[in-house]
Design goal:
single chain; two-stranded parallel ribbon; globular
């Protein structure tokens, strides 16, 4: 049986290019509905692991709260913008259209 951390990393690895998801959606899909902060800590420990596209994880309002994890605070926004995701003032401007929900995604 996979640990919560393994589930989180598997889910994040599946986020499609050009989409984002939230810490809460990841926590629910991993089986711990109230574990959004734990998801953040797990991602923070990954430090630039290319297999874990942490730049695609935002808070429930679309804010780039994980931006301090990256080399510079603007790197997360640049990575998302390079994938076609609009970002303004450290926030995904149209979260509804770019949101990927792992609980409903095809396996």
């Amino acid at each position: 049986m996979k640990s919560f951390e393994e589930k989180v990393l598997d889910i994040v690895a599946r986020i499609p290019r050009g989409k984002v998801t939230t810490y809460g959606h990841i926590a629910r899909a991993a089986g711990t509905a109230r574990g959004a902060r734990m998801v953040g800590w797990i991602l923070n420990r990954q430090k630039f692991n290319p297999a874990v596209p942490a730049h695609r994880v935002v808070n429930r309002r679309g804010q780039l709260t994980g931006r301090w994890y990256f080399e510079t605070p603007d790197l997360m926004a640049r990575l998302l913008q390079n994938e076609g995701i609009p970002v303004h003032d450290h926030c995904v401007t149209d979260l509804k259209n770019y949101l990927w929900i792992p609980e409903t995604a095809d396996e």
